[in-house]
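Onboarding guide, step 5: your first structure request.
Type a short instruction followed by the sequence, for example:

Predict the 3D structure of this protein.
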Amino acid sequence: MKFNYDYATHQWVLSIMVGFFLSKVITTLAKHISNRENTTFYLPYYLQMLMAFIYFIYVWYGYSPTISLAGEGQRIVFLLMIIGDLIPVLFFQLVLADEEDLQKEIVDLETVYFRNIKVWPALAIVYFIVTGINEYLLQDVMPDSIMIINSSSFGKLVFRIVIPVSVYLITIFWKNERWHTYTAVLMCLTFGSLIFGY
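The system replies with structure tokens like these:
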């Protein structure tokens, strides 16, 4: 059996994943708004929702097309890229309220946010390690503008992985609202700046 490690094949799979997830984000947000009187406000939760939109715009229009084309025909790189695309979908699924939460009389978003606090930051750590390795392997063909940090040296690769991993490790063990707010803002700014080319 021949596997097609090409962008065209991956793009339609990614389109289904992104479409499915963004529809969930929009539906969840709409339910929060319509049921706002019975929904407790929690800023880090809504910032994660904003980050979901920003991240998937970044992935769909910039990162995935670039890294997919650069990694065509390279099995390990392409498989790592697929894993890197799947992790954020699972990440945000664990962060956002599910159908059971939305059916409750009172939706406590802080409880929803911290329910899987040991799991989704760990997924973020795996994501940054996987994408950092991929960027390092493809550094000769990847444009700097699409990379979270130019990984042209091993030192920069370590920097690219160590900082976000450290941030999310602290997130697992420290339930401080201010820290979680700053972390979400930092990630929104990171991916947002890449979209606008800064």
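Each response can be followed by summary notes, for example: The mean pLDDT is 78.
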